[in-house]
Amino acid sequence: MAGGGDALRALLRAANALLRQRRYRAALAVIKGFRNGAVYGAKIRAPHALVMTFLFKSGSLREKLKSIAQATYTHSRNLAYFVFTYKGLLAAQGKKTPFHSFLAACIGGWLVFGDNNPVNSQIIMYLLSRILFGLARLAVDKGYIPQPRQDPFPLLAALVWGTVLWLFEYHRETLQPSLQSSMTYLYQDSEQLREQVILFLLTCDFFKVTSAKQR
Question: Where do the structural domains in the chain lie, given as residue ranges?
Answer without folding.
Answer: 1-114, 151-215
